[in-house]
Specification:
With 458 residues, the chain is α+β, with helices and mostly antiparallel strands. It folds into four domains: 150 residues, Cathepsin D, subunit A, domain 1 (Beta Barrel), CATH 2.40.70; 89 residues, Rossmann fold (3-Layer(aba) Sandwich), CATH 3.40.50; 64 residues, ATP-grasp fold, A domain (Dna Ligase, domain 1, 2-Layer Sandwich), CATH 3.30.1490; 96 residues, 2-Layer Sandwich (D-amino Acid Aminotransferase, Chain A, domain 1). The chain is built from eleven helices and 28 strands. A seven-stranded mixed beta sheet has the order 2-3-11-4-10-9-8. The protein has a five-stranded antiparallel beta sheet with strand order 26-25-24-27-28, with helices on both faces.
């Protein structure tokens, strides 16, 4: 038997038929099948045979470098990702070269944007060919940055588009990285602005927004706000300043402020005929018992008005427990809502992602065992779901009531029909992109182009 070659925990691979001269792969003997990052996946039939057209971005953190690929479909499989989400993926078979050895492998087409590597090499491809030394890297050969850049220099695009600012606090978050990649992929210049480093000059003649060190932010076409709840006041003040300078803001300061006031937004929804779980609000502790009875008694849900991502939301199983929690919050001068518990939902809700008045993706979120509410941030899982026409209309109407161009609308299914839970003005992309495989970041950038009547240059 031929001696097996030793490779490291990461190696360079190439796919001549796919026109991918180099892509960095994580070597993972724990995974059975190999996978490659793919987007814009489309199944087509050519002369009676099923093919798949797709795009690969072989350079990490750079969506502007795109390789257009096509291959025959050999299988379709349900694959469970490392995050616990199950996806239906196309499988292709193509020759791969690693360290001078060329052989055919099976690849699943996967959304790997949240992963460190654009490719994963599983044990089926390595069987009887390689042994892995996890303490070493690139034992089969390495490329320096200039050499790797040369492979794809013909695909790098010059920026000739819009000047976009991403207003947030952490550039390393998945959602922020994806928006930057999507903007650059469409030829725009995008700058990350840390909210805390921005400041304003208020003046009737020469109002300004400045950035750390005195840099004046000029000629910004659009701002994408991704403002964490603790920065709502200052972040919205900055948005008002950008708006006064004639800059388009994707989600206005007033829309964000209204969406984050759960009491006010609930009143708006109720006024506009949108069904929500029965909700109560009171200031005086003397009204606690009637407040509980008003929403149908226990079990019930208690929410802080400024809660987000499931934090500040608790359930009370008995009236006595509910009284204790409500009065404890009130003693701390915290404003809360009391809401009926929808038992038939069984800890599930639907997140609809709305962009420019359309639902571009939707997922069903399932709570961890023993929990009452679904939350991906706290161990919940998610999978794709087909929403009804009524649910679609509800999501779109809710986002329009708050004047949000981008919104995450949370809906719960009940015996009374779909009920609106809440609307998020800075919805995360990671869970829904990974579960659905849809390029939502690109849809957001395209919405900005539409608002500004920008035509993508050839």
């Amino acid at each position: 038997m031929e001696k097996q070659k030793i490779i490291g925990s990461e190696e360079w691979c190439s796919f001549e038929k796919l026109q991918i001269p180099a892509i960095k792969a994580r070597i993972d003997s724990g995974a059975k099948t190999s996978s490659i990052q793919a987007s814009n996946i489309k199944r087509v039939v050519r002369q009676g045979v099923a093919w798949v057209d797709f795009e690969v971005n072989p350079v990490q953190d750079n969506r502007s470098v795109t390789v257009h690929c096509s291959a025959k479909i050999v299988d379709t499989r349900n694959i469970k990702s490392s995050s616990g989400n199950t996806q239906k993926r196309y499988v292709i078979r193509t020759p791969m070269n690693i360290g001078g050895q060329t052989f055919e492998i099976e690849l699943t087409l996967a959304n790997r944007d949240s992963m460190e590597y654009r490719m994963l090499l599983g044990r089926e491809a390595m069987d009887n060919r390689f042994l892995v030394d996890p303490s070493k890297n690139f034992l089969a050969g390495d490329y320096d940055d200039p050499t790797f850049h040369d492979f794809y220099k013909h695909l790098y695009q010059e920026k000739s588009g819009l000047r976009i600012a991403l207003l947030a606090t952490n550039p390393n978050l998945y959602s922020n990285k994806r928006l930057i990649e999507a903007a650059e992929a469409r030829g725009h210049e995008i700058q990350f602005l840390n909210i805390q480093y921005c400041y304003m000059r208020l003046d009737a003649q020469t109002p300004e927004v400045r950035y750390r060190g005195g840099k004046i932010l000029q000629n910004v076409d659009a701002v994408i706000p991704r403002i964490r709840p603790s920065m709502t006041f200052y972040g919205c003040a900055l948005l008002r300043q950008f708006d006064s300078l004639g800059t388009y803001c994707l989600n206005s300061s007033s829309a964000i402020t209204e969406s984050r006031d759960k009491l006010f937004s609930s009143q708006l929804f109720s006024k506009n005929g949108i069904q929500i779980p029965v909700t109560g609000f009171a200031k005086s502790p003397l009204e606690t018992k009637d407040l509980i009875d008003m929403v149908g008694g226990s079990p019930l849900i208690i929410k802080l008005l400024e809660s987000t991502q499931g934090k500040g939301v608790v359930s009370a199983e008995t009236n006595k427990a509910a009284e204790s929690v409500i009065n404890a919050f009130k003693s701390l001068q915290a404003n809360i809502l009391v809401q009926e518990f929808i038992k038939e939902a069984e800890g599930k809700d639907i997140r609809c992602f709305v962009v420019d008045g359309k639902v571009v993706a939707s997922i069903m979120r399932v709570a961890p065992k023993g929990e009452f509410r679904s939350n991906i941030h706290q161990g919940g899982t998610a999978h794709t779901v087909k929403i009804t026409g009524e649910e679609r209309r509800l999501a779109i109407k809710a986002s329009k009531i708050l004047n949000l161009d981008v919104a995450g609308v949370d809906i719960i299914r009940s015996n009374k029909g779909p009920l609106l839970l809440e609307v998020n003005s800075s919805p995360g992309l990671e869970g829904i992109e990974n579960a659905t495989g849809k390029d939502i970041a690109n849809a957001i950038i395209m919405a900005i182009e539409k608002k500004l009547k920008y035509v993508l240059k050839d």
